[in-house]
Amino acid sequence: MDQAIPADTDLIVLAGFFPIISADLCRKWAGRMINTHPSLLPKYGGRGMYGVRVQEAVLASGDTVAGCTVHYVDEHIDGGEIILQQPVAVRDNETAWDLGGRIFVEESRLLVQAIKLIMRKRGEPDVQVE
Fold this sequence. Notes:
Layout: E1 12-13, H1 23-28, E2 33-37, H2 52-61, E3 65-72, E4 82-89, H3 96-121
Parallel strand pairs: 1-2
Antiparallel strand pairs: 2-3, 3-4
Helix pairs in contact: 2-3
């Protein structure tokens, strides 16, 4: 993967990227690689916690609030510094797929907000993202 990334890359956006990134790659791109996760990390993160499995765990626990996170990628699965989070209320009698669909919508919005926040912190002008 590293050979495919130009050296002048400012930000790598993985957006729900499933394969585990090597520790060497994480260190090389520290602070310049972000990912999304369909939970309020650190809850329901780590190995095996992806897709509908996350929402199944939320519902099985009886949590009334779920959500999503955008975080920096480091060598720990779902362990990087949190950039932004968005809570989502769990509805009565909701399926994991229904909850996951609602969270996906919020996750997409949150990712755009996180990219804009990172750009502002770096002194770059805002861009229009649809």
